[in-house]
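## retry 2 of 3
previous attempt timed out at serialization; input unchanged, resubmitting
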Amino acid sequence: MGHWWVRNIVEPGKLPLLLALTAFVLTFVVTRVITRLIRAGKGPFRNVSAGGLHIHHVVPGVVLTVVGGFGAVASDRHGAGGALAAVVFGIGAGLVLDEFALILHLQDVYWTEEGRQSVEAVVLTAALVGLLLAGFVPFGVNDLTQEELTDRGTVIANVAANFVLSLVALSKGKTRTAVFGAIVPLVALVGALRLARPDSFWARRFYGRRPRARARATLRAYRHDRRWTPRSRAVQDWIGGRPDPDPARLPGGRR
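## retry succeeded, writing output
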């Protein structure tokens, strides 16, 4: 175990990345536990206010992210300074992305349906950093032999091709597939080959005069959403808490 740790984590300089990811995930978990306790009115925790102004935890998160980011740039990856900066950066990033939806919508949507986007951003970020930590290089160029490393043309072609596939998947409305496809090439290929979602740029551009393709895309999106959306929502509720009900959707509410 010690040999594996030194060879795969310490020597490649991945310890700061591991520390940052650990701090990021733990910060998100602790923050969600505290906010859910505050929401339920349990425990000693309360919202932080100054002069009647509610201070969202994205504010100290931004400060910590800036401090940790510049500290990491100025530090040696193999030194104690780099490790400390990575932890500070991970804590700050966890606080910031926990309120990603607030930044996106420029309003407090933490416990609303739109607030689920914060959970999605955190899960997606943790997954991508985990892939990088496991040894994957962006755009899927990983595990290259010495001969492949000398062939720069092949490497550039692989990077460019996979980047194009990821862009195609993104234009088809498959955001998660496109992002993960930037790391794992087969994912981008699948996303690029499958039908686009009916509300995507690709569908509007290429399915306008193809009613059969448009109908198939609509049916496939409906079946996919009906099957996976409830499961995705259940996981998001378990991680981040159930959103407050929308008054407009309640019986008697204004639609």
